[in-house]
Amino acid sequence: MTDPSLPCLILDGGLGTHLADRGNDVTGSLWSAQILRDDPSEIVAAHRDFFAAGADVATTCSYEVTVGGLLHAGVPTAEVEDVAESLLRQSVQLAVHAADGDHVIAASVGPYGAGPGQGTEYDGAYGLTAAQLAAWHRRRIGILADTGADLLFAETVPSVLEVEALAGELDRAGRPAVLSVTVTPGDGRMLSDGTDLQEVAAIVSGSTSIRAVGVNCGSVADVLAGVRRLAEFTDLPLAAYPNSGERWDHVNRVWVPRETGGLGLIDAVPDFLEAGVHLLGGCCRVTPREITAIRERIADA
């Protein structure tokens, strides 16, 4: 249940990596979307694990549901559009079923890099225009906007052109939305494609649908630097959900261990609150255990 006495909403953690922790195989090209296809009950169970840990928000298992990804996985061309729509709608239905009460359902809109971009959500090297990216995102956003989700959650966005495209498509959909980006490792003030976050702040501040902007799937220090930079140029509420500090090697599809030391997520909770973060949680490799610790740290702040 959401707690109005807390200064922010608690996001969930890494859904895909938690599914792996539960014994599911997410090593294929569809990642967590494979479990969505094969064993929907596991998606419900994983959402419930995060709710039990104290999360207010469930981020749906739609991040990697794309036509291109499904084609690559062997879905016939004649069926792929219908399969994609069915899975997108099912991802929201499962989260709603898992919530069974006063929780927020955020429909995940993954970036182009998580589909045919093949892992480029961390550098934005797409070679596409904003118009091309908008066209690619349009149908998926339209489908998710036509579900029981409370908001659309465009996340792990590495490119300013994709930020521009998504802002336009989210406004077209007319549903409340959050947009979260990835940043350059070691310099959280810059989008992954090298653009200053000042430009991201300008784009989202002009949106009619985006209600919050944030940074995700980077180290705690980089995500904190990113939200601080955004706060300089926008009054929108901020979202922050770092990963465990490990780096995803999309070529070999393995996690590279983080360097020792560095700011820890739980210790950084007061810093995130001071920076103006209103949605706080974790991304890849952040477990229900850490979500509980985040909630407890916020309650004690």
Describe the secondary-structure layout.
Elements: E1 9-10, H1 15-21, H2 32-38, H3 40-53, E2 57-59, H4 67-72, H5 77-99, E3 104-109, H6 130-145, E4 151-157, H7 160-173, E5 177-181, E6 183-184, E7 187-191, H8 197-205, E8 210-216, H9 220-231, E9 238-241, E10 247-249, E11 254-256, H10 269-274, E12 277-280, H11 288-300
Parallel strand pairs: 1-12, 2-3, 3-4, 4-5, 5-8, 8-9, 9-12
Antiparallel strand pairs: 6-7, 10-11
What does this structure look like?
There is one protein chain. This protein has 301 residues and is of the alpha/beta class. It has a single domain (9-300), classed as TIM Barrel. 42% of the residues lie in helices and 17% in strands. It has 11 helices and 12 strands. The strands form 3 sheets. Strands 1-12-9-8-5-4-3-2 form an 8-stranded parallel beta sheet. The chain has a two-stranded antiparallel sheet with strand order 6-7. Strand 3 (104-109), helix 6 and strand 4 (151-157) form a beta-alpha-beta unit. The longest helix is centred in the first third of the chain and has 23 residues, at 77-99. The chain is globular. 55% of the residues are buried.
